[in-house]
Amino acid sequence: MKKTWQTALVVGASSGIGAALVRRLAAQGCRVAAVARRHDELEKLAVGARTAGGGGEMLPYVADVREPQSVPELFETITGDLGGLDLVIYAAGVMHPVQFEEYDTAKDLEMLRTNLSGAVAWLNPAAQRFARLKRGTIVGIGSVAGDRGRSGSPVYNTSKAGLHTYLEALRNRVARYGVKVVTIKPGFVDTAMTKGLPGLFWLISADRAAEIILTKARKGAVTAYVPARWRFVMLIIRSMPSFIFRRLKV
Ligand SMILES: NC(=O)c1ccc[n+]([C@@H]2O[C@H](COP(=O)([O-])OP(=O)(O)OC[C@H]3O[C@@H](n4cnc5c(N)ncnc54)[C@H](OP(=O)(O)O)[C@@H]3O)[C@@H](O)[C@H]2O)c1
After folding, report:
1. Assigned domain for 78 exists
2. Total structural domains within the chain
3. CATH code at 136?
4. What's phi and psi for 174, nearest 5 deg?
5. Confidence at residue 69, expressed as pLDDT on a 0 to 100 scale
6. Residue from 10, 23, 167, 191 whose mutation best tests the ligand 1 pocket (most atoms within 8 A of CB)
7. With contact defined as beta carbons under 8 Å apart, do 14 and 42 qualify?
8. Is the pTM here over 0.85, yes or no?
9. Omega before 97 cis (within 30°)?
10. Across all residues in the chain, what is the average pLDDT?
């Protein structure tokens, strides 16, 4: 595989899709900064990246994306440690189980802080840096869940819809400088987030998702459904009139 990026930052890198992205980037010879809260998982990932060969390296950074005030300094540290920055991927996310008649504001706000506010805190400095340098790629991991307001998980959906809109707006700001912003909308991926959930279908591995995501990012896609067949499903779901959609218990 051709090495497109020398240096990368993955936020939300300790498990699932983020960890798979780190493994693939390191295997392609990239120096990758990996951010998450679980130090032990990041350490295991760093050892794996060292022993897998491929010439890459993984640098672990423990941080909580719900603390935006720590980002500017850490972002500077990371770019210094990496010796540059070509690619930033925001993969951090939580999807707390929500009962149909539950309205737990604390739980909902926590999802927004992780999935949306955290993305803004990490991708704003990335966009600013890339616009100044007139190059770079930003990838945000949204979800098919952000394409419609489902009754089952109102605020997870909202956080992803907000992320999609934020990424589109960033793209419209920085495209003129040659900076790419890629919105990724995965379907079901086999990770801790989906473990034990009923009704999953077309489940793909985190590694397969990472492979598709990096291919789409390399091509500078605008929005990519992962895998691509979700585009057609979501076209139908998005075209469904509200009075019909509301009857579906999703
Ligand atoms: N799995 C799916 O079917 C699916 C479908 C569509 C979209 N997605 C999206 O894909 C992304 C990755 O999810 P996943 O499926 O790979 O789940 P996962 O295995 O649970 O990974 C979530 C990642 O986010 C990090 N994270 C969560 N809260 C954080 C915080 N406060 N600070 C720093 N990092 C935090 C976790 O690290 P720590 O816990 O170590 O902090 C972990 O590395 C998420 O944005 C998710 O919404 C997943």
Report:
1. yes
2. 1
3. 3.40.50.720
4. -100, -5
5. 98
6. 191
7. yes
8. yes
9. no
10. 96
